[in-house]
Amino acid sequence: MGSKQIAQETFDDAVQENITEFEMDPEEAVREAVQQFESQGVDLSNIVKAVRPPASENGQRQKHQILLTLDALGSAVAGSDVAELPEQLSAFAAQCKEQLAFRYLAAQNGAYPVVFSACQLAAGDRGLLLQAFSTLSALLDGQPDLLDAAGRELLLRSLRERREDAEMTLAGIRCVRHACLKHEQNRQDFVKGGILPLLTGAITQHGSSAEVVRTAASALRIMTFDDDIRVPFGHAHDHAKMIVLENDGLRVLIEAAKAFTDNSGVLSELCATLSRLSVRNEFCQEIVDLGGLNFMVTLLADCMEHPDVVKQVLSAIRAVAGNDDVKDAIVDAGGTDLIVLAISQHLGNPQICEQGCAALCMLALRKPENCSVIMEGGGALAALQAMKAHPREVAVQKQACMLIRNLVSRSRDFSRPILEMGAEDLIAEARAAHRDCDDVARAALRDLGCKVELRELWTGQKGSLAQ
């Protein structure tokens, strides 16, 4: 992905030049312009890669279709033409959903104020407001900076006043999700505005609606993200604690799971959210006490053929295993065998291998008795097979090395059988291939009883060697 940016007009001019100067047909002109800019390291993700209609007879530049649609929507809004709004909102939303470049160009040309005004115009008409919120959601997707304080208040007010309406709740939460992803300030502002009880309340009130439960759980999870690179420190941990302590979030999510025992998509989302809330020892224990561990283990067993679900469940098990008592509960529930099976069955999937090794690593930490169960269940062999299958995946290599170390650090009798599986060569290869693996690989080799050569790294400073 290139790091340089260009304006839409620059791209359009290059396409037009290819057509007029080099007599290319339109499709070829666009392809040539794309290749030209990408070869120069230009990021074209926000550029509409299409031929703009030719200039009119008076020389006036024509607009891309998304801007023509925006103009029509703007005219309907400016004239308060409620009868015309449904068609215009539908057309604009459909084009926004096609690709980020369309909605980015629209946003650059004043789309947000137009859509926000449409939401205000539609306030008294439920069907029209649903359409307006759907359009706002489409526009905000990937563009959370667009939302302003007035838009935030409009969404919060709608979620409060129409909380009994499942469709309206879903439409509002979708807007909130897009506004909070990769935007720390929006997250903090929504939390201050009272979004958390509205989200947990939506799950409780509309517990039979798969889409509401899944989307609200996803929105709760996004509130615990720390994904805005513009902000040095976010409030992810504080938000997670608020969801659990002030809004009974763990109980709400686990109770919701009971209505969707056959819906792997909803259960996967609930698992992913629970893993983000496992930020304290007592929270991990509460998940077990509420029956969350049982549903995770059952879900893993029943959905072994669905890699996305498997990955989320493994991540959740890894998270709750931060509590030493929960480690034992997971092992007692047969979790280790299922984790090993997941790694073996999805050996070609690096994310599952990483999460599986990480979960076993947590279960083995400070627990020699659990190490015995993992060894007997083939956990060490599965980890080494994962290393062999993904030599270039540093995350897989690191987690496997840490698992091997945890298995032998308090149970030296396991060193020989693990070495006989070929561990030394695989760990040495990981150390040589990945600088980030050096410390964990060296520790694993040392605890296996292997001779470890200290690696010396020249720092570029006179007389300075780092090992």
UniProtKB/TrEMBL annotation:
UniProt keywords (A-Z) are: Repeat
Q: Which lineage do the record's taxonomy fields give for this organism?
A: Eukaryota, Metazoa, Chordata, Craniata, Vertebrata
- Report the protein name in the record: ARMC6 protein
The processes (GO biological process) annotated in the record are:
hematopoietic progenitor cell differentiation
Source organism (scientific name): Daphoenositta chrysoptera (varied sittella)
Q: Which InterPro entries match?
A: ARM-like, ARM-type_fold, Armadillo
The segments carrying the ARM repeats are 291-335
In terms of superkingdom, the source organism counts as: Eukaryota
